[in-house]
């Protein structure tokens, strides 16, 4: 700091300030990492509860931002275990409650920054929720865990050709049923067909005796049928015109006439609830029934916050690693509805905001493509971005170039008129007045790198926006800083 104050060269002083900012960020992360390590040592019973209570007291006494951030991380890491141990002793529990009340008093103080308030609020909310986290913390995973995550909670696979999800277990049952049809029998139900399936699998000599008795009963019963029904009975008679039970068609010695095959196939179709044209082929009927079952298996997964986060992490991680845009769009279309895709936007932004430039631009291109293909409504894009954009000032503490990073993500959306410039300006409303103009200027600047300054200048001119309305003072200096002077030159 002394070196910065003593420096008179503006350019060198700027470099020293950037270096100082980098070192402060690095040291903060190092401190947080060390205190988390202390919490894990306590989990492994390598440190005692009195030692942990002394650490908490010291951090509260320092009362500076770095110490309070370390305290929040420590309580998040081992707060549950420590509270359980404190409950065994009244004095320890009293000290524990007093420390948490002190933390709450600091949180409500006017001197506390917004970022630190949110950290302390998360810790206190975590305690009220019995130390159950709202979402799982990202940790390194083994290959087995990654595979389990891909299949977590569902036996679903994707039919990429037809764009549907299929329940494997139900599909196996369907296939097994129709394999049984092919090799053994057709399971018919209802009046007049109960014995036909038994004949298909063959009958012994005892079955023949039962059939003869059944035929004699049917003959006496046939005289009581109405005229139309007798005609139907004659149509299904055996050789010689003698009335015969339809079940006799299953015997090895008698082959049913072709007309009766048609009526039996029609019954099979009704049994499996098919809605298709009549077919004279059992194989065609079977194929149609399977396709109908597949149609019934189209589902939308439940869309609570945890499910949405898991689905988003899987899609974005795979997309940014293998660059398969088509597969990513297909997965998004299958897993998210038009009114829940805002969760995909939110968790994608949260994941990519502090990644490298290549991944941010890839996510921006993905947003642009799914908007053009009507998968992502613009209102859902804006709504899903609100939470991340509202925390821009807090992010800037750890990510000084967060405005540029947001520009890289949203700039591709201007391409092909996927999102108009006015809607992008509306999107930045969540940022807040202090950083709104900065984020919007970064979006315009990054769009010029993608589409060219002339094209962006034409879009700017047709939008009716004016920098003087966005940046009331020092407009020229602002435009020069963010390299968007071309919009005024046009």
What does it look like?
This protein has 490 residues and is mainly alpha-helical. It folds into three domains: 2-128, Serine Threonine Protein Phosphatase 5, Tetratricopeptide repeat (Alpha Horseshoe); 164-296, no CATH class; 305-489, Serine Threonine Protein Phosphatase 5, Tetratricopeptide repeat. The protein is built from 26 helices and two strands. The chain has helices spanning 2-6, 10-43, 49-62, 65-86, 90-108, 114-128, 143-150, 168-183, 196-200, 205-222, 227-235, 258-271, 282-296, 305-322, 325-335, 341-352, 357-372, 378-390, 392-398, 402-410, 421-427, 433-451, 453-463, 467-470, 475-481, 486-489; strands at residues 156-159, 164-167. Strands 1-2 form a two-stranded antiparallel ribbon. The chain is flat, with a radius of gyration of 36 Å. The two termini are 44 Å apart.
Gross CATH architecture of the largest domain: Alpha Horseshoe
Number of domains: 3
CATH class of the largest domain: Mainly Alpha
**What is the element string, with H for helices and E for strands?**
HHHHHHHEEHHHHHHHHHHHHHHHHHHH
From the helix content, strand content and strand pairing, which structural class follows? mainly alpha
Number of strands: 2
What general outline do the C-alpha atoms trace?
flat
Strand content: under 5%
- End-to-end separation in angstroms reads 44 Å
Helix content: 55-70%
Largest sheet at a glance?
2 strands, antiparallel
CATH fold-level assignment of the largest domain: Serine Threonine Protein Phosphatase 5, Tetratricopeptide repeat
Protein name: MI domain-containing protein
GO molecular function: mRNA binding; translation initiation factor activity
Domain MI: 307-429
Keywords: Initiation factor, Protein biosynthesis
């Amino acid at each position: 700091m002394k070196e910065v104050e003593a420096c008179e060269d503006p350019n060198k002083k700027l470099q020293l300030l950037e270096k100082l900012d980098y070192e402060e960020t690095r040291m903060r992360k190092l401190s947080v990492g060390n205190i988390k390590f202390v919490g894990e040592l306590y989990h492994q019973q390598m440190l005692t509860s009195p030692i942990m209570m002394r650490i908490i007291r010291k951090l509260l006494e320092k009362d500076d931002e770095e110490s309070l951030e370390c305290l929040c991380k420590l309580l998040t890491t081992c707060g549950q275990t420590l509270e359980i141990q404190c409950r065994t002793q009244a004095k320890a529990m009293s000290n524990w409650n007093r420390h948490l009340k002190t933390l709450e008093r600091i949180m409500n103080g006017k001197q506390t920054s917004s970022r630190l308030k949110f950290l302390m609020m998360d810790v206190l909310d975590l305690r009220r929720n019995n130390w159950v986290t709202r979402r799982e913390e990202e940790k390194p995973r083994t290959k087995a865990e990654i595979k389990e995550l891909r299949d977590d909670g569902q036996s679903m696979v994707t039919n990429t050709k037809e764009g549907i999800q299929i329940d494997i277990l139900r599909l196996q049952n369907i296939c097994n049923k129709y394999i049984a049809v092919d090799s053994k029998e057709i399971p018919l139900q209802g009046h007049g067909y109960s014995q036909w399936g038994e004949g298909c699998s063959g009958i012994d000599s005892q079955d023949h005796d039962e059939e003869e008795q059944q035929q004699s009963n049917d003959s006496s019963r046939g005289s009581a049928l109405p005229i139309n029904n007798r005609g139907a009975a004659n149509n299904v008679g055996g050789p010689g015109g003698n009335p015969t039970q339809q079940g006799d068609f299953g015997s090895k010695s008698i082959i049913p006439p072709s007309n009766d095959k048609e009526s039996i196939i029609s019954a099979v179709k009704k049994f499996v609830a098919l809605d298709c044209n009549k077919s004279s082929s059992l194989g065609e009927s079977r194929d149609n029934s399977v396709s109908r079952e597949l149609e019934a298996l189209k589902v939308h997964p439940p869309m609570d916050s945890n499910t949405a986060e898991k689905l988003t992490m899987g899609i974005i991680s795979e997309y940014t690693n293998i660059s398969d845009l088509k597969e990513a769009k297909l997965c998004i279309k299958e897993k998210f509805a038009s009114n829940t895709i805002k969760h995909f936007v939110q968790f994608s932004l949260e994941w990519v905001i502090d990644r490298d430039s290549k991944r941010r631009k890839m996510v921006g291109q993905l947003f642009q493509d799914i908007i053009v293909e009507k998968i992502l409504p613009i209102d859902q894009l804006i709504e899903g971005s609100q939470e991340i954009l509202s925390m821009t000032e807090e992010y800037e503490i750890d990510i000084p170039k967060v405005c540029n990073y947001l520009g890289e993500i949203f700039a591709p959306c201007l391409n092909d008129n996927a999102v108009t410039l006015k809607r992008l300006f509306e999107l930045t409303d969540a940022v807040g007045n202090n950083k709104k103009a900065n984020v919007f200027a970064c979006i315009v600047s990054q769009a010029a790198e993608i589409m060219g300054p002339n094209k962006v200048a034409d879009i700017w001119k047709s939008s009716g926006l004016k920098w003087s309305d966005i940046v009331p003072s020092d407009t020229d200096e602002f435009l020069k800083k963010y390299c968007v002077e071309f919009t005024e030159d046009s």
